[in-house]
Amino acid sequence: MAEEPTRALSDVLDQLENAARGESIKVEDVVEKLGHKSFAALMLIFSLISTSPASAIPGITTTVAGVVFILVVQMIAGRTCVWLPGIITRRQMSSAKLCQGIGWLRKPVQLVEGFTRPRLTFLLRRPWLLLPLFLILALTLFMPVMEVIPTTGSIASAVIALFAAGLLTRDGIFVALSLIPLGGLPVAVWYFGFGS
Fold it and tell me: 93: which strand partners?
């Protein structure tokens, strides 16, 4: 199989944009559109939403943290089908703001796609995959606190998006790159945000 850049990331944005009909869209509609087995796609979408202008919506960083936490726990447990509680799936987002965020993400996503290709795929299998998953799990516990520290929630979400992009495009280099900020971000947030 030729190692060529894929449109996997843009395809996820296309699917989400197609699902955004009417005035609002429920989280359960996003899950239905992307598929109940699409852990990486769902992680990518929700983390990208939190890096886009939609992150200005109060509580969005905490919501994204909750969704990613639940997805990662299931991935660590080896589940093959996504489950999210009703309190999350019933939440609604403005379709207009969501589409605005998708439009804002198009160019950076296309740029990233130019560098992605299947490589170092052993990093996408256990036990190697467990390290970034546990680091993301720890990061999501910090994210609700990041709501009060400007831009940190978006940075954390961008790091998660980097990992999810690597997972979705089978690019172990992106997964490896995500390990650097994943290990350092919670420490930096605590030190600069709450240290003396």
Answer: 25
Continuous H helices in the chain: 8-19, 27-34, 39-49, 60-77, 86-89, 95-113, 130-146, 152-168, 172-194
Running DSSP on this structure, what letter comes out for residue 94? E
In this prediction the pTM is 0.83
Residue 1 lies in a domain: no
Q: What are the tokens at 25? A: 């869209």
Q: Tell me whether residue 101 is in a domain.
A: yes
Q: Which domain holds residue 84?
A: 8-194
Half-sphere exposure of 63 (CA within 13 A, CB side): 23
Q: What is the pLDDT along the chain (196 residues), one digit of tens a residue?
A: 344 446 678 888 888 888 777 788 888 888 888 877 789 888 998 888 888 766 666 777 888 899 999 999 999 999 988 998 888 888 887 788 778 888 888 888 888 888 888 999 999 999 999 999 999 998 998 888 877 777 778 888 889 999 999 998 999 999 999 998 887 766 666 666 555 4
